[in-house]
Amino acid sequence: MIRVELSKLVRRPRTWVTIALLAGLPVVVGIFVKASGLAPAPGEGPALLSEVLNNGLLFPAAALAIILPLFLPIAVSVIGGDTVAGEASNGTLRYLLSRPVSRNRLLVAKLTAVVAFIFLAVIIVALVAFAAGVVLFGIEPLSSISATPLSPAETAIRTILAILYIGWSMLGLGSIALFASTRTDSPLAASLATLAAFVASQVLDLIEATHSIQAYLPTHYWLKFVDFYRDPILWRDVNEGIGLQLVYVIVFLGAAWANFTTKDITS
Amino acid sequence: MTSVIITHELTKRFPGGLLAVDSVDLDVRAGDLFGFLGPNGAGKTTTIRMLLALIHPTSGSIEVLGHEVPHHAQLALHGVGNLVEGPAFYPYLSGTRNLITFDAAGAGGSARTRRKRVGEAIERVGLSEVGDRPVKAYSLGMRQRLGLAAALLRTPRLLVLDEPSNGLDAQGIHELRTMFVELVRNGTTIMLSSHLLAEVELICTRAAMMSGGRIVAQDDVADLLAPTGWVRVTTPDLERALRALQDGPFRFEQVDGATVRVAIGDRPAELLNRALVHDDIRVRELVLERRTLEDVFLERTGDGEIR
């Protein structure tokens, strides 16, 4: 069943359009930065973008920082919200379940497809950005974000770690989307509910009054992936982020499972 | 005959209180071409969804192919092909790819024979020429055919089909009937739901009728359609016939200028024919009156408009 879901994912034009848009945006930003020679001042704009003029090797990280706050979560909400509700709304859910496919298995396969999409998207964005970075800004042997310089090889390793972290960071939202998707037969409603959760988290993370709960918000540690580019890597917040996502994954997957396995399929 | 579907006091009350299915006892036997009839909203589809473990019963029991549903639905449903409330596909995939996808979902469809079986199923429903086109370009009738192909993929022992002739033209419906009869001849049991009683009458061997969530009739079609005990006689010598009948033992009523209905009960009609001919009355036509399923349904429900 997992193979079936993955095959549907890669055969669906929407998957590739979404990834192309995600990968294209940073390239556009890169072209403008290159053409104008103007990067945001350090500390402003997307993380790390200020550094790319000096070194194209950092462009994958900058690209991830560009899509992470908004576009990637939207994509995850849409794809995740569509998983079960999309099958319900076009009627294929009843045919899958009566094949028969057990509901547990279907849910696991759907989750796998969401995870696959997230990592596929993040990796392709990073690869495209790497190529664009090399073409636009060239490779410098040394790149610096904290005081100590990193070798290109070291930068590559840090980028891989960042990719893994960002992918993992999306899982909490992905689980919320999967849960929402089992609650309704409308993929749009499920995606919007997930987006609402995402926006709420972002809003609560911005204001000072909610400081006491901010460390528990699913989006709170997302941008901490830049800590992988420090030397030595600053693990504290990253670890918190990984643990927090795990909690969201367990809670919402549990809820999705409890809901889906007992649900009447009337679509 | 072994039963392939048995339900006992099957009941479904939806959250909100709607009693969709009320103490239904179904008995579909191996080899049946079983018609499952009733107007829209009678509870047919909810019943079928419970048979397929899509909806959980409120109470009562279900056995499909000897396995309890929903607890052992995975075992039971292996041998069941189905078409419920119209076909559904992934519009962005081709017809062939859709069937491959469905076949690969869940255990049971051998990957080695998949392409071959899919090809055969597509050919069987007459879609070979459009198999590689995306389903979003298919007409309603083509989707219906593809849905049937999906149901037939794993040569199931039991086919549960909900309104299979929807969207098909006269030619398509005829082909479908022929296919059903052939499938049953080869050992498949078919449960066929429909709101078109006449259609079912033509091919089904047994039937259950549902109205308002309950079963109002369940029997062999031949028994449901047993003669009414009336014979309809058409003759150019009607007046003499009426006179002869007046002297005879049978109740009768005139229908029009050439036809009279005679109540012969369970006596053989040839007696009447012989008596008429004996009196030199020319019999142009002598027909046993039979009920239609529609008559039976109206009889059993009292009212109940068939839509």
Layout of secondary structure:
The complex is a heterodimer of chains A (267) and B (307).
Chain A: H1 2-11, H2 13-36, H3 59-67, H4 71-90, H5 92-97, H6 103-137, E1 143-144, E2 149-150, H7 152-183, H8 187-206, H9 211-214, H10 235-261
Antiparallel strand pairs in A: 1-2
Chain B: E1 3-13, E2 19-24, E3 27-29, E4 33-37, H1 44-51, E5 59-64, E6 67-69, H2 73-77, E7 80-83, H3 95-104, H4 114-124, H5 140-152, E8 158-162, H6 170-185, E9 189-194, H7 197-203, E10 206-211, E11 214-220, H8 221-224, E12 227-234, H9 238-247, E13 251-256, E14 259-263, H10 269-278, E15 285-290, H11 293-301
Helix pairs in contact in B: 3-4, 4-5
Can you give me a brief rundown of this structure?
The complex is a heterodimer of chains A (267) and B (307). Chain A is an all-alpha fold.
What would you say this structure looks like, in words?
In chain A, 70% of the residues lie in helices and 1% in strands. Chain A is an all-alpha fold. Chain A has one domain (2-261). In chain A, a hairpin with a 4-residue loop joins strand 1 (143-144) and strand 2. The two termini of chain A are 21 Å apart. Chain B is α/β, with parallel strands linked by helices and 307 residues long. Chain B folds into 2 domains: 3-224, P-loop containing nucleotide triphosphate hydrolases (Rossmann fold), CATH 3.40.50.300; 227-290, 2-Layer Sandwich (Alpha-Beta Plaits). Chain B contains 11 helices and 15 strands. In chain B, the strands form 3 sheets. A 6-stranded mixed sheet of chain B has the order 7-8-9-4-10-11, sandwiched between helices. In chain B, strands 1, 2, 3, 5 and 6 form a 5-stranded antiparallel sheet that branches. In chain B, strands 13-14-12-15 form a 4-stranded antiparallel sheet, with helices on one face. In chain B, strand 13 and strand 14 form a beta hairpin. The two termini of chain B are 33 Å apart. The chains are: A mainly alpha (267), B alpha/beta (307). Chain A binds chain B through residues 1, 3-4, 7-8, 11-14, 90-92, 94-102, 105, 262, 264-266, and chain B through 14, 49, 52-56, 73-74, 77-78, 80, 82, 84-93, 97, 101-102, 104-106, 108, 150.
